[in-house]
Amino acid sequence: LRLEIEDAEKSRLISELTSVFAHEIRNPMQVTRGFLQLLKEPGSWDKKKDYIQISIEELDRANDVINDLLSFGKPSTSDHKKVEVCTEVRRVINIIKAYSMHQNVIIEANLSDNCWIDANPQKLKQCMINILKNAIESMPEGGTVWITCRKTEDGFVEIKIKDEGIGMTKEQVDSLGSPYYSLKESGTGLGMMVSFQIIQSLKGKVRVHSEKGIGTEFSILLPGT
Ligand code: ADP
Ligand code: MG
């Protein structure tokens, strides 16, 4: 299964979403504020424990949204500099190590060096973290994620992120990157949208190979310097 994502409709939607993001954050804040107010009033402890629990869940959700969107909407090309992708991959692995260990997932990296591109390193890392996080989450029983980074003959830098997780049907792959598309119980459905937007802003390409029950491979091609 093979797909190239280049979709004007998706990018149009993305540009309309800024106000929706604000709402995504404001909503949990208002719910939590309301419950804090109620906690000041007299009432049973059992009820109050419910208020606290809902508030924690709301704040966790807001945190997920922020994490998936961290670099969204920042200026695009003005903040580009020379970035060595393998170095950034190593940083990303360090950032996500605690999470992957907790999920019983081993990350195996095969990185060369001298993979230079023009990019905002923050955004590049955000893009990889969102894809890597999904790879880890696709293996509820644990497993291995393979990451490779290399230069291609035709002047691109290729990053591959492969998992042995639940995989996707063709329809599911086609839905990747659509705002709020998520099959997870408490997913945001924003991570892929942000990653694809970042790849697009780097004039890159992404290909997704996935097989239900076998696993998924993301191949990201970014123009080298
Ligand atoms: P979220 O992770 O919050 O659900 P994302 O935008 O990051 O939102 O991902 C959207 C959906 O794409 C996920 O809910 C999942 O169903 C699917 N997906 C993404 N990556 C993978 C993967 N590596 N394996 C299986 N499914 C995936
Ligand atoms: Mg995700």
UniProtKB/TrEMBL annotation:
Where does the protein end up? Cell membrane
Extract one GO molecular function annotation from the record.
protein histidine kinase activity
Q: What is its EC number?
A: 2.7.13.3
Coarse class of the primary localization is membrane
Q: Please give, as recorded in its UniProt entry, the membrane topology of this protein.
A: Multi-pass membrane protein
Q: What superkingdom does the record give?
A: Bacteria
Name the UniProt key words of this record, in alphabetical order: ATP-binding, Cell membrane, Kinase, Membrane, Nucleotide-binding, Phosphoprotein, Transferase, Transmembrane, Transmembrane helix, Two-component regulatory system
Q: Which EC class heads this enzyme's classification?
A: transferase
Domain Histidine kinase: residue ranges: 20-225
Q: Which reaction does it catalyse?
A: ATP + protein L-histidine = ADP + protein N-phospho-L-histidine
Task: Supply the name of the protein.
Answer: histidine kinase
Q: Which residues of the full protein are shown?
A: 191 to 415 of 415
